[in-house]
């Protein structure tokens, strides 16, 4: 800042209307420069209020209605304002319990005061949805001067807002830089997530089960974010990740999780995502990417979970040659896709040894196991239970996903990308399903 005569003050000044804050790293220099600036402003005709001005340098101060702490780089709600808001919310809770009649302008005034807290509490919009809807409907039916009866449906939100103000969790001013990337995608049949961490990639995917009632693509996309965070939460905790870059090709999901202001249909899932990120102590940074750059997550979400594909003969022969294990039976096959003379089929087949591979003991066999991904946990448990040696074919990312269940791996071979190793079945082409992304691994396992 420059003064009269071209003098330069080596300070930084932040001004908002008539509120001025002067910043400098040196306490002594700041005190001296502050007095010079005050005198300079008085010479210009400014009138300063002695009761409101603070001319002694401090690392803790109040500015624009917030308490700032430059030692910890945090912002909190001042005690006096916090006390007033708690009293006001308790009063609103009591009159809501009694379902009293209030003016629409009073509701709008409460919403305005709570919206001010969004600077510190980013998640406050997640609990303002019901209040905003209640105010808007009342204003449309009547007018801004009408009276409305309070509904008890807003009570849970009022209690949650009161809890946030009581805790007064500080907001960090330091900007975290994400070094871990989570890419998600969803389809009508399932979801997929790709985690890029420590110069490696982890994948996970699953189908939507009957507990999910997702009626739109936006709901599916934001639910895919939730499921991916749940799937990768152990690795995020183990590696102490504090900032995560979330990539999605859905602009609505990116907007909702960027400023935490979701639509009514998405607010419930957004609340769960925020609570999960708080428990993991991970801040989310969102980024929208084009669909053509989201190939792997898209393939995971549209993956053929029921295994309508088979390993090619050249890849199988390579695995048998390297692992030195000749299988005696193909446990998960059909008449047209079998890779051994003896096989088990999931359908009625008079040429198959058994109809259901899980219905008999595998003891004494050296099976070829290339099962649907959804059946891998059951298969691994049966290998350990029957104490056999087997040739196991599965995507590379499944090794991390099911590492707790995997038996002892004697040897293994990377067969290459799934597009070169696997042969899609006829139903995959009709249903427009995709092969599991990533490389395919052949394992020689023994219990």
UniProtKB/TrEMBL annotation:
Q: Which domain of life is it from?
A: Eukaryota
Q: Which Pfam family is an annotated match for this chain, by its short name?
A: RVT_1
- Listed GO MF terms: nucleic acid binding
Spell out the InterPro entries in the cross-references.
DNA/RNA_pol_sf, Hepadnavirus_pol/RT, Rev_trsase/Diguanyl_cyclase, RNaseH_sf, RT_dom
Xref: CDD domains: RNase_HI_RT_DIRS1
Residue ranges occupied by any Reverse transcriptase domain in the UniProt entry: 1-68
Q: Which PANTHER family does this chain map to?
A: REVERSE TRANSCRIPTASE DOMAIN-CONTAINING PROTEIN, RIBONUCLEASE H
Q: What is this protein called?
A: Putative Transposon Ty3-I Gag-Pol polyprotein
């Amino acid at each position: 800042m420059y003064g009269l005569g071209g003098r330069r003050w080596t300070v930084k000044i932040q001004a908002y209307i008539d509120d001025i804050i002067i910043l400098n790293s040196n306490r002594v220099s700041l005190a001296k420069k502050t007095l010079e600036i005050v005198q300079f402003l008085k010479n210009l005709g400014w009138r300063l209020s002695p009761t409101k001005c603070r001319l002694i340098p401090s690392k803790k101060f109040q500015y624009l209605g917030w308490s700032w702490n430059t030692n910890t780089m945090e912002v909190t709600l001042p005690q006096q304002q916090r006390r007033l808001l708690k009293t006001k919310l308790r009063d609103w809770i009591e009159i809501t319990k009694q379902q009293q009649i209030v003016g629409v302008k009073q509701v709008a005034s409460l919403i305005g005061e709570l919206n001010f807290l969004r600077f510190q509490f980013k998640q406050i919009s997640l609990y303002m949805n019901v209040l905003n809807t209640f105010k808007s409907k009342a204003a449309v039916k009547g007018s801004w001067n009408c009276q409305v009866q309070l509904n008890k449906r807003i009570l849970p939100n009022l209690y949650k807002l009161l809890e946030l103000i009581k805790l007064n969790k500080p907001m960090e001013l330091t900007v975290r830089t994400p070094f871990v990337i989570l890419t998600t995608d969803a389809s009508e049949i399932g979801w997929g997530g790709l985690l890029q961490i420590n110069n490696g990639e982890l994948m996970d995917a699953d189908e939507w089960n009957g507990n999910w009632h997702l009626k739109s693509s936006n709901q599916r996309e934001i639910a895919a974010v939730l499921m991916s965070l749940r799937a990768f939460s152990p690795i995020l905790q183990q590696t102490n990740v504090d900032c995560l870059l979330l990539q999605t090709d859905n602009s609505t999901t990116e907007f909702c999780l960027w400023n935490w202001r979701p639509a009514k249909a998405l607010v419930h899932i957004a609340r769960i995502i925020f609570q999960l990120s708080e428990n993991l102590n991970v801040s989310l940074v969102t980024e929208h990417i084009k669909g053509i750059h989201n190939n792997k997550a898209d393939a995971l979400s549209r993956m053929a979970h029921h295994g309508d594909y088979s390993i090619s003969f050249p890849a199988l022969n390579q695995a048998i040659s390297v692992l030195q294990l000749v299988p005696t039976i193909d446990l998960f096959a059909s008449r047209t896709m079998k890779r051994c003379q003896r096989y088990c089929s999931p359908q009625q087949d008079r040429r198959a040894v058994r109809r259901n591979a899980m219905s008999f003991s595998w003891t004494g066999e050296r099976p070829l196991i290339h099962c649907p991904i959804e059946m891998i946990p059951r298969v691994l448990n049966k290998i350990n239970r029957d104490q056999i040696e087997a040739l196991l074919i599965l995507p590379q990312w499944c090794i991390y996903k099911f590492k707790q269940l995997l038996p002892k791996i004697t040897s293994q071979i990377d067969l290459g990308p799934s597009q070169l190793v696997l042969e899609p079945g006829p139903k995959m082409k009709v249903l427009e399903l995709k092969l599991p992304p990533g490389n395919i691994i052949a394992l020689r396992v023994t219990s």
